[in-house]
Amino acid sequence: HHHHHATTDPPACVLCVCxxxxxxxxxxxxxxxxxxxxxxxxxxxxxxxDSPGLQSRLEEAQTTMEEAAAQVKELEKSKAALHxxxxxxxxxxxxxxxxxKDIASELTPTQQRLExxxxxxxxxxxxxxxxxxxxxxxxxxxxxxxxLIKESEERLAAIRQQEPRDLDMTREQEDEYERIKEIAERxxxxxxxxxxxxxxxxxxxxxxxxxxxxxxxxxxxxxxRLEGELEKALEEKSNTEQHIQQRTTDLDxxxxxxxxxxxxxxxxxxxxxxxxxxxxALNDKKMSCSASKxxxxxxxxxxxxxxxxxxxxxxxxxxxxxxxxxxxxxLRVAVAAALGKWADHVVVNDYETAKRAIEFLxxxxxxxxxxxxxxxxxxxxxxxxxxDFGSKCRAAIDCIQVKDEAYRGIFExxxxxxxxxxxxxxxxxxxxxxxxxxxxxxxxxxHRAEIIKKNGNMSxxxxxxxxxxRFEASELEAIETELEALxxxxxxxxxxxxxxxxxxxxxxxxIRQLETIIQTQSTRLDQLGVSIKGKERDRSKTTDIVxxxxxxxxxxxxxxxxxxxxxxxxxxxxxxSEKGHFAELSAAxxxxxxxxxxxxxxxxxxxxxxxxxKLQRQIAKNKTDLANCQRTRQTVGDPAKLQASVDKVESDxxxxxxxxxxxxxxxxxxxxxxxxxxxxxxxxxxxxxKHDKDIKKHRETLRVKQKAKTELExxxxxxxxxxxxxxxxxxDIIRQCLMxxxxxxxxxxxxxxxxxxxxxxEVLDRVAGAATPSQTxxxxxxxSHDAPEGFDALQ
Length: 795
Fold this sequence. Notes:
Layout: H1 14-19, H2 25-48, H3 51-161, H4 171-187, H5 189-290, H6 293-312, E1 316-319, E2 324-325, H7 332-339, E3 346-348, H8 351-362, E4 372-374, E5 393-395, E6 401-402, H9 408-415, E7 418-421, H10 424-437, E8 443-446, E9 450-452, E10 458-460, H11 464-473, H12 476-578, H13 583-589, H14 594-635, H15 639-740, H16 754-767
């Protein structure tokens, strides 16, 4: 008890008040209550005033939120840069594919031209070889004819240079010979006349024989020419047929290739449409799953924890939710709502396994809370009457497929008393009409997660939609894997579509060219067929003529032989008859028979004339054949020109091969670059997707931090409101003291200082807790009355 001024009226402290206790016990009691209440309020303020800690946490949350926002902003900038790079890579892929299409449209005609040049070269080389053989044959023929002409001319000259034999007789002997000859001729006139007729016949026969021989020779020459032309025509026909067959094979191959290309192209287009629909469906499904992505990481963490738990604790199975599936998509939200808290229970064998699992979780500080459901939990079967409520209501246990019948019991426990209805109206009917009538108590869940409990209370499970998304969340990884594979296949089909049109156009051009060539060759083949038939008719006709001429020649030769034999016989008879007349002259000339000698000389002369005439005819014929061969040689293709054509085709082939090699090299380079660009584009796309995931993750983190900040702000506002309420109560006491003129001891200041303070507290009260602890004055009771003066010193 400090000293005090006793003159103070009223007293300024409790002890002073005690001196006036006898004046009124009521006043003392009132003062003690005020002191007690004020002390309690101060203690209450000191106990509840955690505003500095909340403010510090709020500032820390603000800092982390700003950091998260900065990270999101940085990631968005990085995403924009990646988007630009991915767009550039995609454009580069498209550009390279267009370049490949241009190369393909240029390469195919080049290969076709090269193939045509190779065939043309083969044809020219065959023609060159054939013309060379023909030219060589003609040269040999001309050389042989020239040798025959030269030999015939030499023989003719030799015949002409030979001196004819003659009878070496004197003038008197010649006169005697002529006189005897006249006598002998008169005596043998009939025989001579007969021989003359036979000689005339022989001459005619010889003329006919010569004519027939000429006809035969001309026919054989014609046959030979026809045989050559026919052989040439047949060879050309065979080559044309082979050419047509080859072109037809090429045409069939091209048509089959075009058909395959068309089928592949059509299949690719059809598959492209299917892929577009499937990709769109998967993207839509992925979008619908995106709302569940927040739980995916949580699910994965829990699944990893459960997997680790399975390794260390035998008898742990999985979450109850993962041990079932809901085939009907429309029932998934209702099933999730029906499972409710049971969905995240981990199924174990028994209670001992659950205890071991709990001990395992205690070693994992970040494991969080986890509930366990033993398989040996007592359950009862679903009441069969739950399946008889109509088409709009079904037992919840019938809406799922259990992965193993061993889990049927725990699902009976979780869903055995639950039915799922199409709407709330049907649910009310079941809950409030049907079930009471059958003395049943069931839980009703609608498709929209509206729940009617057994006691009749109604609620809506707002988290059921997210729980229903867990069905899709479990499929998200499979969706993303399938999307990646389908996107790659779509890119391959786009490449086929890009290059397929150029290849189809090239094949169509090739088919049109082959059809034109086949049509031209077929026309030529028809012409050759007509020509060959005509030549075969001419050959057959000429063969018959030659055959008839040879038969006629044989007959004429036989007649000639008979005629010559008759003439020889008549000549012998005449000689025998005239032999006696020329005996003396023959003896004088020293010959056996002068008449026979004269006849031999005449025969020799005649034979010489015939040989000379024959040689002249042979020379003329050989010269005619030589002129024909020389004219034919002029029509034969010039080997030099043909060789020049072959050389030109070879040079064109070299240029085409170089072009083809360059195009193939460019194609390989472009394909390599395309693979690299596609790889880069995929990497950019993957990086972009990763950035999207990171951005979503950071945005989710930012949202969580914003939510935490908001919660802190709300908590701080609540704390300030509670403290402000204490201040208001304290001010009410002080205001009442001022009204009743009850003075209380203060650490500093005086009672008059409370009047402006009261006004300020009223303002703070109207602002509803907007003040901060530094703005709100704190009041502390003390037993000292000594204090500095002035309101500014208030704490």
